[in-house]
Amino acid sequence: MASADKKLELLARVPLFSALRGRDLERVGQLADEIDVPAGKVLMRQGDTGQEFFIVVDGTLRVERDGKAIAERGPGAFVGEIALVDEAPRSATVTCETPCRLLVIGHREFHALLHEQREIERAVLVALADRVRQLEPQQAH
After folding, report:
1. For residue 141, what pLDDT band results from cuts at 50, 70 and 90?
2. End-to-end CA distance of the chain
3. 117-140 pLDDT per residue, tens
4. Distance in angstroms (rounded) separating the CA atoms of residues 89 and 106
5. Contact yes or no for 56/73 (Cβ under 8 A)
6. How confident is the model at residue 63, as a pLDDT?
């Protein structure tokens, strides 16, 4: 099991949460459940509606788009963070390549926290805006 400090350290690496500190980061950490998932388990399928976000504590995930492997993700990596915000269709299929220990945060719980804690909501929105700017550096914003 990940210690509380390790859980917060992993969450702080996620761009959506990187501006959060102290109690705000701890509030997000309270939403993160640790789960063990067997090798071969599909966490998300391309085109399905996103409902949760995962951080890899231990193990390896395989990421596929249109049936082709495009990446592997190991400890400290994360997948599905945008689903916390918009519940849009998944852009890739993600499968546990090995047995995995993951942190998972659900969309519903996360939105309840954002509704209660406006400073967390603002930090997440700023992080999203920053990611858009990085993805489209040539565009005027």
Report:
1. very low
2. 43
3. 888 888 888 887 887 777 665 554
4. 15
5. yes
6. 95
Please provide residue 105's backbone torsions phi and psi, each rounded to the nearest 5 degrees: -125, 130
Here the CATH number for the domain that contains residue 95 is 2.60.120.10
**The tokens of 99 are what?**
């047995």
Percent of the chain that is helix, strand, coil (3-state, to 5): 40, 30, 35
The model's pLDDT over 45-100, given as tens digits with 9 standing for 90+, comes to 999 998 898 999 999 999 999 999 999 999 999 898 777 778 788 889 999 999 99
Environment class of 40 (CB within 10 Å of its CB; exposed 0-12, middle 13-18, buried 19+): exposed
Is 109 in a helix, a strand, or coil? Answer: helix
Residue 32 within any structural domain of the chain: yes
Count of domains forming the chain: 1
Asked whether residue 141 is domain-assigned, the answer is no
Q: Which residue spans within 16-126 are E strands per DSSP?
A: 33-37, 42-44, 52-58, 61-65, 68-73, 78-79, 93-96, 100-106
Q: How far apart, in whole angstroms, are the C-alpha atoms of residue 70 and residue 85? A: 24
Domain that holds residue 123: 4-132
How large is the average pLDDT for residues 13-42? 92
